[in-house]
## 1
Amino acid sequence: MRIDLEPRPARSLAVDVAAPILALAAAILIGGVVVWLLGKSPTRAFSVYFVEPLLEGWSLQELAVKACPLALIAIGLSYCFRANLWNIGAEGQFVMGGLLGGWLAVATHNGAMQGALGGWWIMPAMLALGVIGGALYALVPALLRVWLGVSEILTSLMLVYVAELALDYVARGPLRDPKGFNFPQSVTFDDVARLPFLAEGERLHLGVLFALVALAVSAFVFARTLFGFEVRLVGEAPRAARFAGFSDKRLTLAVFAISGALAGLAGIAEVAGQIGQLQPKISPGYGFTAIIVAFLGRLSPFGILVASLVLALTYIGGEAAQVALKLPNDMTRAFQGVLLMCVLMADVATRYRVRIRLGAAP
Amino acid sequence: MNPDQALPPLLSLRGIVKRFGGFVANDHIDLDIAQGEAHALVGENGAGKSTLVKIIYGVLAPTEGTIAIDGEQVRLNSPEAARARGIGMVFQHFSLFDNLTVAENVALVLPRRESLAGLRARIAEVSRRYRMPLEPDRDVWSLSAGERQRIEIARCLLQDPRLVILDEPTSVLTPQEAYGLFETLDALKAEGRSLLYISHKLEEVQRLCERATILRLGRKVASCDPRQESPRSLAALMVGAQIAEIRPAAHAKGEVRLRVDALSAEAETLHGVDLAHVSLSVRGGEILGVAGVAGNGQAELFELLSGERTVERAETIIIGGAALGRGGVTARRLHGAAFVPEERNGHAAAPDFSLAQNVVLSRHATGGVVRRGLVRYERARELAQEIASAFDVRKTGPDPAARTLSGGNLQKFVVGREILGEPKVLIVNQPTWGVDAAASAAIRQALVDLAARGAAVLLISQDLDELFEICDSIAVIHDGRLSAPLDAHAATREEIGLLMTGATGGQQEDLHAH
């Protein structure tokens, strides 16, 4: 027996839209079986995960707050993925952005370093440091690839652990709140170091706006600019890109810097908007989940917007399911993994027709 | 009556049909090959020759129709089955392991295990009997294309086939190597073996074969004795129409527009070719040809001239008076150069991009399709349409993906894209490789016309006919070295052929002395 993948002659828009939806449905079905094997009701779990969070105002806000870092990171990753470069380390870039920006908040705590200037510059400077921290951290695997030909998949992934341990060390060591009863966390940021909320007493912070702007700008970049053309060409036909006169080295650095910068921005927005202090752990795996968001959204800005909301739902639903159904929190990660597999398989199915042949020769 | 004629033919095909989805590659083809007959299968690219041969060799199963050997109907559902019936094949593309010896490569495909020592003796036997020099202990990577082909032929002959299929065997050979091949094939015929010889070179067919089957668009259009036909009448049968002859335009030679001075570069890939002291100059209005067997440094030369790879010394490559050895592709384009790489899909064009996007690909700096970093797709679409009308590019829909075009049409598009920019220097690599005769003629005419308008054209090609047809002078590349150019109107095929085999300048002078 032989299994052949034959390229399909043409892809229609309908198939492109239907594939991720079918993948999501398949993942929900598989998730339901797992829930059933755990001895819980799959229909009840579906309702807790995917329906109830959509019924209340506060949880809708929470959805946007969780979708914000996912969308920011994923749109950055889409630059890399479209160029066929595999930045798996957005989680680390997210942490580094949060760490570097958060450091400034701690350093300026209670009026330190402010002098006559006042505190107005702190928030913009924190955002800039977050962007720079993420971009520089992403450039490490990019430079290693360009100079030495090291696989960016391995280096970017391994640097995640370095970043996580660095944050862990800083939160327990140098930046720990001296009056914090030895809890491993920094001081609570001053108000000037907090990302403003969009409305008084609400949970939505300015980061949500950043995400929307990043999505809109990226949509324009890919549709209209020569740079967007370059990114797609390098991914689609690298030899043709060299013939076009585009330098793949320069482009590698550029897309890694962009994706690191957006991950770093998401990191500082999370720290300054959501958490309000440095902790040993600031991300429930946003950087990895964003990879699923990018693929579920088919690397398109609008798709990523939708996909980030879907994946944010799994986080909120997962927390609710812990309480309501006593399902383990790992269920969320497992479900996200299943979803990624389904999305990738759906992607293959839209590009190729699977043909199973019996017997030795065709 | 000759008793032989009472015998059923060795191979007999009846009503062979092969469909790939909605596409009919072979449409009710009949073919008979008698014992000891040399039969030619001729037709343009895409006529269905390869499909038919794959069916005979058991690689593809026919959708309809029957195959009989010695009058007995058979099913050939694998190459093994075909070989067991006495059918052997020499493919156009070699399947050899570079890092193994000749004998080891042969041993790999034999059905039974055999001691390497015994095999060496048998290879030597075949080599002597068919006048094919072969050293069993040489590593394959060190061999020329002609020598590699001999391994493939030896592999085939060691299985004692009654019918040998050869797919375009001379396409990779120098004229001298081709001559050697014909001697071998004559020896095979003398032993009563049948040949099925696939080619679109009509002189070869006339030299070797007593019968020919002509395919066009998947159908058998004629069957004839090629020796009774003229090359023109055969060509007309193949194409179904008269082919336009190239009008050589008289053009004055202007100043030097492309100068390469002692270009040397080490190969970047394993088994690549090092270029050594390549020097050349092309004047406006001139077409300089670079002849040579594939894999002698043409790919490396193109990469270095296009700027996909740069060199240390800027003065090594001078385009339109500017020293651009260190400049990339875009810098060279901005100085009036344009390039057409050998590979259409994935190099000259991105297959999944639309034609308009493919215009942006090579014309973003020179075509007015980008303004302040923004792509003007409207303008690119107009340009794509201009190219399509000027070069008769047949396409489906207003702006289809490049991969939906046929090879010939995509090549016309790629060549037209560069020529419509009125470059001062054009460097093309194998512009008519795998392109049908009508499109080839159109492309050659476009190159001639461009030169007549004063551009310098450098044409890298393996096709000697093409080079003699349109070049003013021809230089030969062999093992990374370029010969001095010869006047194309005075040089003979033999001279060029000798240089292609790497004969030194001394021998070249000998030849002139005769």
Note: Chain B touches chain A through 33 residues (CB under 8 Å).
## 2
Amino acid sequence: MAESALTKKRTGWRVKLEPRLDEPTGKESLLISLGAVVVALILGGVVIAVVGGNPFASYLHIARAAFGNIGVLSDTIVKATPIILTALACTIAFRMKLWNIGAEGQFIMGAWGASAIVLAPVLAPESPRWMFIPLMALAGMGMGALWGLVPGYLKAKFNVNEIISSLMLNYIAVSWVNYWIFGVWSEGGFQMSPKFPVNASLPRLSDYAETIPFFRGLTTHAGLIFGILAAIALWYIVYRSRWGYEIRLIGDNPHAAKYAGVNIVKNTILVMALSGALAGLGGMSEVSGVIRRLQTAPINAGYGFTGIIVAWLAKLNPLAIIVVSILFGALILAGREIQPSGIPKMIQGIILVCLIASDFLLRYRVRFVKGEEE
Amino acid sequence: MDPIIILQAGVATGTVLLFATLGEVLAERSGVLNLGVEGMMLIGAMTAFSATIATGNPWIGVLAAMIVAGLLSQIHAFISITLQADQVVSGLALTLVGAGISLVLGEGLSKAGTVSLMPNFSIPLLSLIPILGPIFFTNQSVLVYIGYLLTPLAWYYINHTRPGLHLRAVGEYPSAADALGINVFRLRYAYVFVGGMLAGLGGASISLAVAPGWFSELTTGGQGWIAVGLVIFAQWDPIRAAIGSYAFGALRRLILDIQGPLTLLGFDNPFYYNSYLGFFLQMIPYAFTVIVLVIGSRESIRKRLGAPAALGVPYIRGERGK
């Protein structure tokens, strides 16, 4: 008798969904995101195992190849630097529910703009660094902003879907840069420009190895400073400024924003331009700090798309982006050596899928309740 | 630069876009925006190619592509319909996942060499019609002919059948449809699945007919996104989707052919003498998509037409409003 009552009770358990009335706490939200990433890694591991790989070896390899010593940690940070800037670019646009997925193209155009200062040339090769770097950064941000402005303007004036227009501009940016690399700035027929002069390159830690021996061989470059400063500035804009309040208001409730007298047309164009400028700065930092020449393959490596995932994982918080970018930098750095070569990209995609699915838990509370179905 | 050949090739290559666009029209008509078309096409192209290698039968390849892409689409269906998440981000994630999985599973396929492709043939009598015969009915892939059948069928289905009426109701006013006893959730799942199958068919048309082989992400080269754009241009109408798709196909062929002749309209052909200008030609389909979007968006404002009213909005039972 007692036993049957027990089993009856056990079968009486069921899952109940209740809409959350309150915002989930930061800790809950962090746990849910972490859980989503863990689930994604397990799913990714299953696919790796299906194609005949060893998921444990793959993940261990990623961890070791990305954080194993100070040298590879520095390389991880180098990979994280462009992601920080593209993720910031996505964040400011996504805050307003503007789906700028053209950060990839804005990044590429930023790289081109910065390169044009060196290759056109706007400045003579022997010009000092304090002239080169700011001018290249401005040119990169300018070209990125232009590439963000076009879909922003079309959205604001003609209600053109910014997702598709910003994505189409990615392809146009690749062709544009290819034209210059192959046709105008090619070095001896190769598919790359000549190397930049030293003063057009962002300083690396290893440049100071003579005074500080510890820095020997470390590739981390000054672009990281751009990323961190931009993150702090964006945090201030989003959470502390009137403009940021307007952006969040439009994102959360465009009708309320309109009645409150917020200029949606102007903000759409401005935010898309700012978004593009941030991605463009990322492109500048990559050509000047890492590649030190204009070349298509390394700048067209998908940083813009990774930025989307990082922005989402960081819950559109500019400061959290720095941390998340380093994790994704690790995935990309270490993933280069893993076969099949599509694995890092696949894992990124699966992470995004799991993250979006997990957002459900932020809106609903899952309860296990006793009793019969009412 | 023979216009007949350009149009004939345009119909052949445009068939890829046609399938993907028709699929997206159906999904969006049910109220679900699926931005994962590019990913579903990639996985379709990869599946079709590798299943054909394995079995030697391209029909099995096509079927496998449709099933696999349809199954992939159900990830988006689950996240956006059941979990009510943002459809934009979910679709984007589907594209990334589809691309990633096809890269992983398609590793090494690019070296696989040739497979048996979908058959080409001419239609007797119809191919004898002047101009139209050579363009539409001469030496086209069987997939092209399937496209001719599918387009009017989809149009008739959406506009003149009872299930089509239900489809439109679910996309325009889901709570009313629900009140009439139509299962909104089940229908949306079904049409996202159909959309996925058609995107997979589009991908299979690339790898088994238009540009045979597997070239990783270059296989589709953004055609999934162009299809999403074409849906807006098409105003969610299958007939306009076909016109747009074929026009895009012809444009792609024109870009290739324009680099051939020594003179163009009596002038020296700049694209012949400076091959680097070809990079600007490559931009044209993407720039054209943006222009087409502007036209589509302006027209929908002027004619007060437009997207299904519930497009992109998750249906939550018992909530106020639509």
Note: Residues 80-329 of chain A form a domain with the ABC transporter involved in vitamin B12 uptake, BtuC fold (CATH 1.10.3470).
